[in-house]
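Priority: low. Protein: tRNA-splicing ligase RtcB. Input follows.
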Amino acid sequence: MEEEQEGQGSIQESLKRIDNNIWEIPIGTKPGMNVPGRIFLSDKLIHNLEPEALDQVANVAMLPGIQKYSMAMPDAHLGYGFPIGGVAAFDEEEGVISPGGVGFDINCGVRLLRSNLTVDDVRPVMKELTEKLFQSVPAGVGSKSRLRASDSELDDIFLHGSRWAVENGYGVEADLEHCEGGGCIEGGDVSHISAKARKRGKPQAGTLGSGNHFLEVQYIDQIYDQEVAEKFGLEEGQVTFMIHCGSRGTGHQICTDHLRTISQASKKYKIALPDKQLACAPAQSDEAQNYFRSMICAANYAWNNRQIITHWTREVISDIFRSDMDELGLDLVYDVAHNVAKLEEHTVDGKKKNVYVHRKGATRAFPPGHKEVPQAYRDVGQPVLIPGSMGTASFVLHGAEASMDISFGSACHGAGRVMSRAHAKKEFHGEDVKSDLEKSGIMVRAAHPSVIAEEAPEVYKSSSDVVNVVHDLGIAGKVARMMPLGVVKG
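Result:
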């Protein structure tokens, strides 16, 4: 312990400022680092970063085949092995794949629906709207869907993601066009998914879950970039709906199952780990590929999950306003993953190569012209969706040129916690937080008051401070700011 504490202290002292918002942990700060660590933080945010998260950045830098830097976004905080807000890319042949670099909630992500509704349309019905959304979209720990997937349907979901939902009446073709990767990663393989993971997945397609997951009614109170906002179909005063959730129990189980195998593989391949939570295997080994193909299935499950929730959200809004989704303009702006590993082509040392990019609490932020950005947005870059807390702003940004050079096309994913859930429950009372939010005009409906306490606005960093860092670095440019009107929590 003494040695660990000395190491953490030396990391803080060794931090080298590279730019206004870039800090570096030099190679050699900890023995075995293959690359430097890079942390993207303003002067204000760096004081909130836990020393343990810095230590995790340095630990990730020791993994075999890591490229350029071990990185942490401005919303970084302590995670399982990798920091949340961590980004690391590994050589396709010489590198590794690590479940800790993705996290347990595989493809936790965010999607945004726009509408033709205004604040004045929605405010009078906010109580009814939040209540009906809560009743229609199952939320909470272990919540189950009105949909029960059969074995063959579950396989289709694992392999085809959002397309399964759209082809079964839970959306429209345009939803797929406005979704990262079309709402699917090709290459999934169901043969290494356990019976337990399948059992957990069958009743949960179309459920919100618990923790920091939410369904939020918002309105746009500020536009920063009019041209890009028009491309995204956004304007001031417009009401939007944000959905934040992931792959539920099945994703957690898939991660848990493969962590056991990967941990054994780390020993088998004699990979020196500074932290057992960084268990990994050579990228081309059977163990790593079995995990990666199963992780793809969980990622596809998550996209399908958000698509079904989108459908039920549209049904509720259409029912309350007695109009169909076309008349209400309930179009999907975009859907992004922020817990996933992908095989992508990037330029490293002047050469193009394939790398496994691990984004754990980090959003892809591809710039204008990138082939993976939907055609409708290709001349402005992909939408980057950054949720705030229950009481603070969320943001839409667009991927910018510098992202490919600075961060393997990655940006932050949220505000980032400054307090653990256990600490938050001691510090706050859910009913008090709810009452304070309602006094500010924000309706809250949750499965249990303790969830509201865990997610009190005070337990998060300022979302404005976080997005300002990626904006100033040229990773992603600010487009619009949304303020909450009503929140449904698990």
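The chain is about 35% helix and 25% strand. Residues 74 and 296 are 27 Å apart (CA to CA).
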